[in-house]
Amino acid sequence: MSNRLLQIAALTLAARLLAGLAPAAADDKPLELNDRRELLVDGYLIEKLQDLRLVSHEPRDEGVVLRFDKPWEGAFCGYTTVIKDGPLYRLYYRGLPKAKGDGSNLETTCYAESQDGITWNKPELGLFKINDSWKNNVILADAAPATHNFSPFLDTCPEALAEERFKALAGTEKSGLMAFVSADGIHWQRRGAEPVLSKGLFDSQNVSFWSEAEQRYLCYFRTWTGDGYTGFRTVSRSTSTDFIHWSDPRAMSFGDTPMEHIYINQTHAYFNAPHLYIAAAARFMPNRRVLSEEQARQINVDPGYFNDCSDVVLMTSRGGTVYDRTFMEAFIAPGIGWSNWVSRSNYPALNVVPTGEDEMSIYVNQNYAQPSACLHRYSLRRDGFASLTASYQGGEMLSKTLTFSGERLLLNFRTSAAGQIGVEICEESGKPIPGFTLAECRPLIGNELNRSVVWTHGESVAALSGRPVRLRVVMKDAHLYALQFSR
Predict the structure, then answer these.
(1) 332-386 pLDDT, tens per residue?
(2) CA distance linking residue 4 with residue 272, whole number of Å
(3) N or C terminus of the chain: which is more exposed, having fewer CB within 10 Å?
(4) DSSP string, 304-335
(5) What is the pLDDT of residues 99-154, one digit of tens each?
(6) Which residues of 347-362 are buried (b: 16+ CB within 10 A; e: fewer)?
(7) Residue 333 near residue 327 (C-beta atoms within 8 A)
(8) CA nearest 254: which of 330, 199, 317?
C-alpha cells in the first residue's frame, strides 16, 4: 500500500474510531450481495463517505444513426425501443408524418435492425401496404390506438412460450393497454380481446419487462398527480405473473426530491445487473420556451412545438414503488443548436444496450417536429452511469454490512497515473480483518472493467464468503463504477 493511501487511511480511521461504529442492530440485516454486480449509482452500499462523492457521467453523443425520412415516418416519430436479441439489434418506433395524429390510423409502428447497434437499416418487410406500396418497414398499421405507443420487449421469463418470445403493451386512456405477442419480433398479434390494464391515462410510452429479481412482469406507465390531466406527469407501476392479469396501480415515489414532469420513464432491467432497474427518463419542462418565433421559423419546426423543452434524467430503482433520484442534474442535456430546444425533443429510447466489450449505448430522439427528425446514439463506459469519485487529495468509503458468495472481488474502475484504489475488508465493527487490511492490499492503478483486488496472500476472499463484513475503499484521483464478488 502506498504511503499516501496509508496516510489517508490513518486519518480517517482515527476519526471513525472516535465517532464509534456500532455493529448492525439485530433487525438490521446485512445486504445480501451474493455474486451480483453492484453499480455505484446510489447510496445502496454506502454507510459513510469521507471526501468522496457520487458523480453521474454524461454519455457521449456519437451522432445520427437513423433519420426518420420515409413518407410514413416523418417529423413526429417517437416512443422508440431498442432490443438486443442475441447478435441482432432491433429498433421499434412510431411513424407519424403529421401533427395531431395521436391515437389515429395516421400512426404506424416501424422497424429497423442492426448487427452492431451503430449502423441501422430499414428492411422492406411487405407486411402492410402504405402509400400504395408494400415496400416499407412497417410492422403494425391500421391498428389505432396501439400504433400510438407500441412498446415491445424480449421476454426472458424461463416459462415464456416460443410463440410469445416477444411481448408488448400499447394503448391510450380510451382503449386501456392491450397485450400483443410475437414469435419473431416482426409479426404481431393481439392477445385477448380486452385491455389488460385500464387504470391509467397511458398518454406516453408505457413500458414492461420480465423481472428476474422479482419473478414477475412489471409495467411502468403514465399517470398524473392530479385528477385527469392535471398536476405533474408521473409514473405508476403494476405487476403480473402471466402478463394478462395485473395488480392495481401504485404510484412511484421519488424520495425527498422536487416533483418534476416525467414524460417517458423508460424503466428497464440493466443488462449487466438485472436486479437494478435503470430509468433514463425524459424530463419535460412545460412552457419553458427557449426559441423566439423567428428562430422557430428558421429551423422549420411545427408552430405548436417550440413552447417547451426537455432533457434526459437518470433514475434508478431496486424494485417496489421507489425511484432513487441521487442525481437531479441532466443525464443528457440538449445539444448546441436551436433544433435541440423544442418541445418533446431529446426523448430517450427504451433500453440501454451493450455495443462493445467496454461500451454501452443509449439512443435519443432529436429534432422533434422538424423535417430533420432523427435518432442519435450516445455511448458510455460499461456500468458507467455514475461513479464514486475521489479528488487528488483522496478519501474513503465505508460500506454497510454485507454478505457475499464468491472467490474474488472485482472492480470496474479508473485512476489517473497518479491515482489509486485500495480495499480493506472489515468486521461489522469496522475492525480490519487480518490478511485483508489496507496495508496488505496491492494498489489498483489503471483503467479496467474487471480487475481483481489482490492482497499479500493473493486474491481469494472465499474464506469470508457468507460472513457479515464491511468494505473500506480508499481512493485517490479515481473513479469506482461497480464491484462484484465473482465465483
Answers:
(1) 999 999 999 999 999 999 999 999 999 999 999 999 999 999 999 999 999 999 9
(2) 34
(3) C
(4) TSSS-EEEEEEEEESSTTB-B-S--S-SB---
(5) 999 999 999 999 999 999 999 999 999 999 999 999 999 999 999 999 999 999 99
(6) bbbbbbbebeeeebbb
(7) no
(8) 317
Q: How many residues does the chain have?
A: 487
What is the identity of the amino acid at 184?
D
DSSP state of 135: -
User: Which residue shows C-alpha cell 480511521?
Assistant: 13
Distinct helix (H) and strand (E) counts, the chain: 2, 32
Task: Enter the C-alpha cell of residue 169.
Answer: 403493451
Which cell is 294 given?
423567428
Bridge pairing between strands 402-404 and 31-34 = parallel
Amino acid type, 340: N
Q: Are 120 and 65 in contact (CB under 8 A)?
A: yes
Say which residue the cell 450516445 belongs to: 378
Residue tagged 422492406 (cell numbers) = 124
Phi and psi for 57 in degrees, rounded to 5? -120, 125
